[in-house]
Amino acid sequence: MEKKIPYAVQFEKVLRIANKINEALKEPRSFGTAEILYASEIHIIDIIGRNPGINITEIAEKMGIRKSAIPKVIQKLTQKDMVVRSAKQQNKRAVQMELTDKGEIAYNYHLNFHEMLSKNIIKKFSTFTQEEMLFFNEIMSDIESCVDDILCEHKER
User: Fold this and answer.
1) Which residue has the higher pLDDT, 87 or 31?
2) Dist CA 40 CA 112 (whole Å)
3) 22-66: per-residue pLDDT in tens?
4) CB-side exposure of 108: number of CA atoms within 13 Å?
5) How many CA atoms lie within 13 A of 28 on its CB side?
6) What is the DSSP string of 45-105?
7) Could you tell me which residues come within 8 angstroms of residue 71 by beta carbon, excluding any fewer than 6 positions away?
8) In angstroms, rounded to a whole number, what is the distance separating the alpha carbons of residues 67 and 8?
9) What is the C-alpha to C-alpha distance for residues 143 and 149, in angstroms, rounded to an integer?
10) Range 131-145 burial, b when 16+ CB lie within 10 A, else e
């Protein structure tokens, strides 16, 4: 007889994974330098590392957050000697961001962490058949859509 797992057990598992990720992101940590960085800081470093010369508006767009939230974090990263701001040659009023050597160290450390994490998850996924991957992808898309709907509805209240 096939063992049935209650839906509530799977829902609790999804919530537990989300909570673990959320808690891990709250904890400031070192990324290969003496500086302690918060999640918002390392994610901005990651975006700048992937997009040298990016400006504040573009960072906000990539993060999916308001532009007004970025300058304060950039200022902290500048004080920590992780990021430098410079004027674009064509337009002196436009400011672009670059990583310093210390910022590059943190960026690479973060990149290696994500590579290690994704390798372990991809290793598990490689045991799935193509049909199982398609089914899993459909479930994850549905869960993401449900979360988006709930968050959107919550914002409207």
Assistant:
1) 31
2) 18
3) 887 788 999 999 999 999 999 999 999 999 999 999 999 998 888
4) 9
5) 8
6) HHHHHHSTTB-HHHHHHHHTS-GGGHHHHHHHHHHTTSEEEEE-SS-TT-EEEEE-HHHHH
7) 56
8) 38
9) 10
10) eeeeeeeeeeeeeee
With beta carbons less than 8 A apart as the criterion, state whether 75 and 84 touch: no
Q: Which residue has the tokens 């920590």?
A: 80
95 or 135, greater pLDDT: 135
User: Residue 41: exposed, middle, or buried by beta-carbon count in 10 A (0-12, 13-18, 19+)?
Assistant: buried
**Burial degree of 23 (CB within 10 A; 0-12, 13-18, 19+):** exposed
Close Cβ partners of 74 (under 8 Å, ≥ 6 residues apart): 44, 56, 83, 85, 97
- C-beta of residue 85 within 8 angstroms of C-beta of residue 74: yes
What pTM, to 2 d.p., does this model score? 0.70
